[in-house]
Design brief:
Elements lengths: L9 H21 L2 H4 L1 H14 L4 E5 L5 H8 L3 E6 L2 H10 L5 E3 L12 E7 L10 H11 E12 L4 E7 L2 E9 L3 H10 L2 E9 L10 E8 L1
Parallel strand pairs: 1-2, 1-4, 2-3, 4-5
Antiparallel strand pairs: 5-9, 6-7, 8-9
Length: 219
């Protein structure tokens, strides 16, 4: 379902504007970080092995495409969706062999039960917790029975307002740190079963809080 910009919730518009602003510098800052994070790669590798060649995988909230590119290197049939048109353009330039489209987690333009796997890699963190049931409903809707969902997010129970980042001032964006127990319950309410949970210590200098990964299975 396509939602006109005028009908978007304020937090969606704020998120899009912020990431349109920082898209190029964001990609530059994150370039190479995956190679430095054993845990990130371990979870992505496990997700790729669980999904296998069963069908398409959506990197939902793909940013500059670095995670989609890594999953493609593992043999997955992966594409990306992101709220920010500027991020999508960066991803298309960086990974011309993959498909990237603009879209929202609140209303994915994907058919029911069309994905063998879905990835929300730090892409739920700008959605107010009260709206997260809608997001999890969409994530569950697009997965085939038995399909896997991998989530990554910062651990906590507070909201951080961001006004500076990636070399830019004048941003206005909220980022929510989330309790794993809350995310597990949201997943369960959407019909997903948690298969694994990992919480790790932050890896400085880019992280200040523990990080969580959850793998869930539909049905």
């Amino acid at each position: 379902m396509t939602v006109s910009p005028d009908a978007q919730p304020a937090f969606v518009s704020a998120t899009r504007t912020a990431y349109d602003t920082v898209a190029v510098s964001y990609a530059e800052v994150l370039d190479g970080l995956l190679a430095e994070s054993t845990w990130d790669r371990a979870m992505l590798n496990a997700f790729a092995e669980l999904v296998g060649p069963a069908g398409p995988v959506g990197d939902l909230g793909c940013g500059p495409g670095r995670i989609a590119g890594y999953l493609a290197s593992l043999g997955l049939d992966v594409f990306g969706v992101d709220l920010s048109p500027a991020m999508v353009e960066v991803a298309r330039r960086a990974y011309p062999g993959l498909k990237f489209e603009v879209g929202s987690l609140l209303a994915l333009e994907l058919a029911d039960e069309s994905l063998a796997g879905a990835l929300a890699w730090y892409s739920i963190i700008h959605t107010p917790p009260a709206r997260l049931p809608e997001v999890f409903g969409e994530l569950a809707r697009v997965l085939v029975p038995g399909g896997r969902l991998l989530l990554a997010f910062q651990v906590g129970d507070e909201v951080r307002h961001i006004e500076q980042g990636y070399g830019h001032d004048g941003l206005s964006l909220d980022a929510y740190r989330l309790r794993p127990e809350l995310i597990e319950q949201l997943a369960a309410d959407a019909g997903l079963t948690i298969e694994s949970r990992l919480v790790r210590a932050p890896e400085p200098p880019h992280e200040k809080t523990p990080q969580a990964y959850l793998v869930a299975r539909k049905g």
